[in-house]
Design the sequence.
């Protein structure tokens, strides 16, 4: 069995370092680097589509390349975008509660 080393994660971790330096003023997001997809960096925002938009704009990801979906029976809205940045697959993801669904549940 072959095991990955930290060196195998150097590209996405290096990109994270660059993004942290170049975009220090952008909203903080969750970060995921995985041995399952060692050449991928995910930036994940929870309950803040504004943070997603700030990162999307800073990374020059076209607005029409963003996908929208709902999950959890419509209770959660999801935005996703992906780009290649310095040879690393960079995924930008945002999750937020559907206010419409939440308000109707509160009224019930």
Sequence:
């Amino acid at each position: 069995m072959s095991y990955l080393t930290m060196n195998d994660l150097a590209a996405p971790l290096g990109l994270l370092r660059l993004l942290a330096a170049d975009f220090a003023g952008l909203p903080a997001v969750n970060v995921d680097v995985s041995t399952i997809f060692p050449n991928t960096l995910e930036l994940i925002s929870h309950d803040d589509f504004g943070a997603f938009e700030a990162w999307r704009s800073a990374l020059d990801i076209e607005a029409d390349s963003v996908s929208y979906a709902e999950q959890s029976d419509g209770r959660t809205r999801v935005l996703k975008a992906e780009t290649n940045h310095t040879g690393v697959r960079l995924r930008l993801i945002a999750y937020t509660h559907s206010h419409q669904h939440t308000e109707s549940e509160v009224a019930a």
